[in-house]
Fold each of these.
Amino acid sequence: MSAAHALPRHLADAVPTGLLVDGEWRPAAGGATFAVEDPATGQVLAEVADAGPADGLDALAAAHAAQPAWRTVAPRERAELLRAVFETLVARTEDLAALITAEGGKPIAESRAEVAYAAEFVRWYSEQAVRINGLTRTAPSGTNRQIVLRRPVGPAFLITPWNFPIAMITRKVAPALAAGCAVVVKPSELTPLTTGVFAEIVRAELERRELPTGVVNVVPTSAAGALTEPLLADPRLRKLSFTGSTEVGRVLLRGAAQNVLRTSMELGGNAPFLVFDDADVPAAVEGAVAAKMRNSGQTCVAANRFLVHERVAAEFTAGLTEAFGRLVVGPGADPATTVGPLIEERAAARVAEVVQQAVDGGARVTVGGDRPSGPGSFYRPTVLTGVDPGARAVREEIFGPVAPVVTFGSEDEGLDLANSTDFGLVAYAYTRDVDRAFRVAERVDAGMVGLNRGMVSDASAPFGGVKQSGIGREGGEAGIEEYLESVYVAL
Ligand code: SIN
C-alpha cells in the first residue's frame, strides 16, 4: 500500500501505509483503513491500514518470537544497526520534515529540528547499547560475592503521540532496541505517516544485516482502546511505554496492572514559567516565546502559566505581547510561518473555549484571542492578563498558543502558585540570583527545571515528571534503564 491524495508524488511513493508485522507490510486483517488529514487545509493526505485487535496480537506474537534472537544479538551489532538508522534519518531529513509538517502542521523549520532531535535519540542509544553495566562486589558480610546482571525486560508496547511524530518514537524505540527488547509501536492515528517511513528505515536495515525483522512492528489504528486492551491482557507483553495525557495514562496503568507490566508514563504537564523581579526581562520574553510557541504550544513541556513578579509584570507583558504580535500564523509548509495550525479542528475549538472562559472571568486579551478566517485549525498567539488563578487557562494544560499571565509578590508566593497543581513535568524560572535559582530548582515540584532557559529537551538528558506528570525517565542514561531489569546473583 502506498500513500495518495494530497502528498507530493515523491513522498507518497515513499510512505508505507500498511501495518508492519513480522517484517512485512500488510493490510489490516479486516481490510479497514482510516484517513490522515493535513491540519492546515483539512485535505486527506492518505488512507492508512486500520489495525484491529487481531492485528495487534499478531504484532505482539511477532515481537515475542523475535525477542529471544534479538536479546542475544551482540551489543555492538545492535549499536551499529542504530548508528546506521541515525545516518539514514539525517540523510532523509527533508522528506521526513515535509511529512511531519504535512500530517502534524508544524512549521517546516521546526519539523527539521524534530528530525534532528529524533535522530539524536538513535545516536545516543547506539552509543549506550555497548555501555549496559551490571555490578559486582563483595557482600558487606564478606561471606560471598554479589553480582547484578542486566537483561532486557522483554517485548515492549510503545504508544506514541502526534505532537512529535518521529521524536517520541525514536525516544522509545532506540533505547528498547539498544537494551535488547523487541517492540510493537502504536503511533497516533493523526500522524502515522512519519512513523511508517521511520519503521521502514529500521526494517530495511534489519533485513540488510540479516537480523530478525520481527523486532519492530507497527500497528496504526483508529480504535486505540480496542487494540490496546488485549495486548495489555496478554502475558507475552512485559513493558508498556506511553506518552500522552494523564487521563489516558491512568486507563493504561489500570490495564498494565493485570500482568504487572513495567511501565513508563510521560503524561500531561502544567508548566509554570516564573519571572522574578531580578530577571533579565527581555531574555525572559525570548525564553517565554520558545517555551510557549514550539509546535504552536502543543508540547507537554510548553510553559502553561506565566507567573510574573508584580514589579516586572508590565514590562514582561508588553514584551510578550509585542513578540507574539510578530509571529506569523500560517501553513507549516510556508517557510515564513512561525506558528502552524493546531492538530485538528476540535483542538482549536477547545483553545477558543479556554480563552473565552478566562475573558468571561475578567481576563484581558493583549494580543490575539481569536481564530484567523479561512480553512485549517489555526488559533492566533494570545496573551491574557489579569487571569483568575482558578481559570481553566491556568488549571488545565492549554495545548495551544495562549499565555495567561498571573502576578505574584514574593518568592514564596511565586513558588506556592507554581506548585499548586497536580502536575509536575517541567518548570522554568528567570532570575539573576544564583541562590534563588537553586532554591527554585530544589523546591519546585517538577522533574525538569529550565533556569534562564525556555528549552530543556535534550536526547542525552533524563526527561520526565513527578506527581501526575508521569513515571520513569526517557533519554540520557536513565532512558535505557526503563527497558532493563536487574538479576541479582549471590555467589
Ligand atoms: C512532549 O511534548 O511530550 C515532548 C516534548 C519534548 O521532548 O521536548
Note: The pocket of succinic acid is lined by residues 163-164, 243, 266, 299-301, 457, 463 (CB under 6 Å).
Amino acid sequence: MQTRLQVAVQKSGRLLEGSLRLLKECGIRVDNGKDQLKASAGNFPIDILYLRNSDIPQYVEDGVADIGIIGQNTAFEKQKNIGTILPLGFSRCRLSIAVPKNTPYSGPRSLHGKRIATSYPNSLRHFLAEHQLEAEIHEISGSVEIAPNIGLADAICDLVSSGSTLFKNGLEEKEVILKSEACIVAHPQLSRQKQAILDKLVFRIEAVLKARNNKYILMNAPEEKVKDIIRILPGMKSPTVMPLAEEGWSSIHTVIEESHFWDIIDQLRAAGAQGILVVPIEKMIV
Ligand code: PRP
C-alpha cells in the first residue's frame, strides 16, 4: 500500500479556511464531504484529519497524525515533543494580557497577586515566572474576555487579532506574551517515506508563500532613466530591460516583495518610471 502522510487540520476555527486554501494553492485536491473527519487527497499522498485544535499537538506527538497545521500559540501552550518546521504566514495573532479600561497599570508588576483568567495556563505561567510574579490563574476554556466583567478575574490572558473583542468588552491590552501565526508541526521521527512526502509538500508550500509575498512589476521609462530606476529596484536578480516599439523607451520588469513596493513607488515615479503595473504571482520557485 502506498504510504500517505496524515495531516491534521482544525475541524473548525480560525485556521481552517487558511489551511485548506493553502493546500488548494499547492495543487492538492481534497474531496471533502461535509462533517467528514477524514478526507483523502486525490492527487497527492496525504490524508486530512479534521481534529479539535487543542488536541492536534498530542495527536502529532503520538504519531496518529504525522504533521499538523496549528497556531504557534497552541504549539507553545501544549509543550509536546513536536517540531515546528515551517511558519505559514496566516492567522497572525498575539497572546496578550489585558485589564479593564482605566485600571491603574504600570507594567507586569501590577499583575502580582491578581486573578488572571485564561485558556493558556502554561504560556501565562511561563510569562509570570519570567517576571518573577505570583498570580492566581483561572483556567477557563472559552469566553475569557467576559471574566473581569462578571467578577471572576482582574485581568485576562487571551488571543488578540483585530482587538475588537477586547474593545467590545472594555479591556485594554497591556502585555504581549507571544506573537503567533499558523505553522506546520511534525512528529519528531517520521519514516523515510513520510519525510519524503513532507519535503515535497514543504517545497510546494514555500513556492506558494513566496508567490504571495512577491509581485511582478512592470514599468516603462525613457532610456536615459533606466539606470537610475534599476538602482532603486531590489529585485530577485538583475531586472529584465526590453526596448519598446517607441524609440528611446524601455520596459523594465522585475520581482519585488510587496512590502517594498510601497516604499519605493515614489522614488520610481520621481526617477521617471511610468505606467507601473503590479501583477500577482501564482507560484514562485527560486
Ligand atoms: C479568539 C480570542 C478572542 C478573539 C480575538 O477567539 O479568544 O475571543 O479571537 O480576536 P479579535 O481580536 O479579532 O477580536 P477565537 O475566535 O479564536 O475562538 P475561541 O474563542 O475558540 O478561542
Note: The longest strand covers residues 171-180.
